[in-house]
Amino acid sequence: MVAGMPHTALISLPSPPSPVIFEAGPFALRYYGLFIALGIVAATWVGSRELSRRGYDGALALDSLFFIVPLGFVGARLYHVVTDYELYASDPFPAVFEVWNGGLGIYGAVAGGALGAALFCWWRGVGFLDFADAAAPGLILAQAIGRWGNYFNQELFGRPSDLPWAIRIDPENRPAEYADATSFHPTFLYESLWNLLVFAFLMWSSRRFERRLRPGDVFVLYVSLYSLGRFFVETLRVDPAFIIGEGFRGNLFVSSVLAIGFALLFFLRHSRPSRHKTTRHP
To answer: In this entry, which stretches build a coiled coil (predicted)?
Structure first.
């Protein structure tokens, strides 16, 4: 690539024609919401199977949605608004509530969803760590599916690229400093593929090492592995999300702390003999 020349891939992923599937009066069905809904369905199905495998009633996965989904959405939006408040400072209302235009922070969603799960487990008398382990594979699968909503919104892409799998971005969605570039790293795709790998690993390890894993281990591995992949994806992204100081990406800090912190937690939990015996629940 010659210096100063725009990044244009000879072969690239096309940009979607519209983020809207169809409109009927004031109602509009958007791909962003559709993929979030599909992710929730997938997570519920996987969670139900994992709960059944652990001896619980699989219907608990569906019942828990009334606690997890509302608090997860609140946490996701709150994380985004707090870390990117400059986007809303001049005219916060109703923009802070317009989630259909994008803007949900996964770390906020996990925190809010975990609070909802804890309340549900307390209400139903279910072990929270067992529930978190059962939910973790479905959660990372939901994230893999949900990332495709970013593709249709033409957001969360990376630096300019001329790789064959680069994605074309319409001029109105390009950052000002990359106005002459046409194709960019599809970081939403990278993260989606990484999440699928983590999903496969969690499903395999929870069966292969079932007798050696402690309650909460699968969830701990989920947070650490997801954050590891998110760290590398963040090094490619160019959107102005959660910027600290003079251009440092805040999510790089958050992901590195969580990846290392939860990895250490996993190893510390296994550095001493376990007193826990695996139990099955009718």
So the answer is: none
